[in-house]
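chain below, 304 aa
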Amino acid sequence: MEEQEQLDEDEGEVDAIEEEIFDYQENVLPYAKKEYAEKKKAFEELWKLKDRGEYEVRNHIENEIIQKYKMRTQAHHGGDKYTGVDIGILMGNAGPIVGEIEAYLLEIKHPLKAAKDGETIIFCDHIKRLLNILDGMFSILRMTHGEFRDAHLTIYESSAKEAVLFWKKLGLSYTPSFHYLHKEALRLLRLHGGIGELLEDHLEQSHQKMDRIHQRLTRLGFGEKRAMAISRLAEMDSHPIIKDVREKVMTARKRNFTQTSKGEKELARKRMKDEFRAKNLECELETVKDETIVTGHEAAKRTV
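prediction:
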């Protein structure tokens, strides 16, 4: 009897649960689905407006503010990036450019605008100060050996520390390029003085050479012994006899392409192009169509 009563009680609970589920499916779920679909659609529309608004903001900044200072994105940089010349203009005019952008951003009213006015002002101020610091650092890096002084090294070192602080405040990634400005450029300034007349490949070669020297001299520490060893290695590197032997070795190790090798074919193809351009240039000069042409490549793009 007790088992039967327990079974009846359980069946009653199951029936009650089934009735609740049925009532939910019939009376609650359809309205919940409808309400969810409406809210989802409204959110998607609002998000589309936000995306459209962001595009409008970006286009306005690029077309109405940045281009006013003769800055243009370049096709060979993907069409959405600026060259070093444009960035130089930005750094040199950071105050007025970022000031106009800040004023424009403060005027924008949008329901999904994430940044408050105070945050926008602080963010733009950090950008202006960072660009001004970087402008000064690049000015020092462009100095030649004769222009550079110890005071410039002190200014660069303090500027690099300030730049790192603002870089972190803005949440920017510590990229290899910024690492070069922060650490490596400072080391090269100490080593060479002004480096404005040195090319990028020369600096990279010098960097690799010094790394190899320091690896060879790790057991000497960083005192006078290491300095004397580096001086001796530099003297040996510039010795005329050693330089002559090095040139002979490099000449002997130079790869000579055979007539059927891929390298020889590429060289032959390059020679044919040069000859073709030279002939086009001669023909163009004979007709005296354009006296400003100085290369066969330019002449080849024109028709006689």
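The two ends are 114 Å apart (CA to CA). The mean pLDDT is 78.
thats it, cya
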